[in-house]
Amino acid sequence: MGQLAENLRVLAWIDLSKKKQFLSRKDEWLVKELNISPDAAIRLLTRDEVLSDNHLSVLVMKFNLAEDVILSGSLLTEIGINIFQENMVYLIAMLKKIDISQKALAKEVGVDEHTISRWAKKASEPVGRSLGKFMVFIEESLGKSVAVDLSKERLFLELSPPGRSFKREELINLLNTLEDNELEELYPALIKLLN
């Protein structure tokens, strides 16, 4: 992934986080913000695609950033984003989506519910034993490996959801949006792929 693609993901995360929409798809956000096709959004978020001047202007105005920062600077560094804290917010939101409350998470990790709330609000971070228990619980609940370094790995910028259950749910949701004729056309290819 190139610098522009990463920066677009960061901008999407920032905007969606302000709206407490931590799990919204970044490609859908880009489609809406720039009025582009879903394919164009995916290309921008995954490759070194060129951003048009008009689209760049939209982002410059919305985020009050210089063009060169958006195009080639490291927004994570420029803005001072704490990768560990953003990952914690993201993972706690993922747990909430599968109906694991902060109270239940606190019990599993062996901390107070207010501690989990502070992690979710970026007011503090888990360390030592509580971090280890949190990571084990993540692996059990989301299917995400505990070998991940939350201070380096940018989970919150991923385009696909972590864990098998979320990927399965996303595929089912996509299939449910298909028209009958579209499903009929795709069915043979899907069966071939899945067998």
From TrEMBL:
* Record-given protein name: HTH cro/C1-type domain-containing protein
Q: What is the lineage of its organism?
A: Bacteria, Bacillati, Bacillota, Clostridia, Eubacteriales
In this protein, which residues make up the domain named HTH cro/C1-type?
Answer: 91-119
Record-level Gene Ontology MF annotations: DNA binding
SUPFAM superfamilies referenced in this protein's UniProt entry, alphabetically: lambda repressor-like DNA-binding domains
InterPro entries recorded: Cro/C1-type_HTH (IPR001387), Lambda_DNA-bd_dom_sf (IPR010982)
Tree of life domain: Bacteria
